[in-house]
Input
Amino acid sequence: MRDERAALILRRLKESFPIPELPERSNPFRTLILTVLSQNTNDKNTRRAFQNLSRTLPITPKSLAEADEGEIRRAIRVAGLYRNKSKVIKHLARSIMERFNGDLEGILKLPLGQARKTLLSLPGIGPKTADVLLLFCGNKPTIPVDTHVFRVSKRLGLSPRDADYEGVRRSLQEIYRSNEYLTLHLLLISLGRVFCRSRRPLCGSCPLLDLCPSGSASKSGR
DNA sequence: GCCCAGGTGGGTA
DNA sequence: TACCCACATGGG
Output
């Protein structure tokens, strides 16, 4: 059920924000490492950490599985949460080598449900990271729900207020066509980053203010 | 000096 | 099942 309002939201997003480029789209393992590094980390530091790691070691399952964890840790320090992340990266690389012979592409060729389940069984891959890989690299019809998508889709009334991760994902996927998922995901993040922040929303200058049920009518955020 | 960043997994009730 | 919390650096 795709209503006019939902269509208008997407149109307005496209008019208001450039569609961000996707780095590393073709290589799932590099995308995976980038996504792990990005967890609770801003873009700039994510890129720095990835570059440092790339300079230190080849970003392949084999090389990272064999690497010294301390070396990974030093390279990615700038991304924060580096003890966790270095452990996850090493563990992931090893699991992918042992269970899939270093081949992530094969997983992404499985049917969506099976591919998702397999990815979620890997250490450090939660729903968001799995959906990023499935959508970005596997071209599968799913929508990763990060912190911005989670918040913004509720504020815009696209998802129920009490929805959890799956609830938000399901509601967005019911409203939009699968060929719009990637664009929608990227643009909701753009909106969330700039105008719809959790503590300090800039509702007054938001280009979608009139489409926001809670924002337009009442005491919008400061 | 505080708040936040494209989450995840382990612990506890 | 449903929360709560640790993880941690760097920039605004």
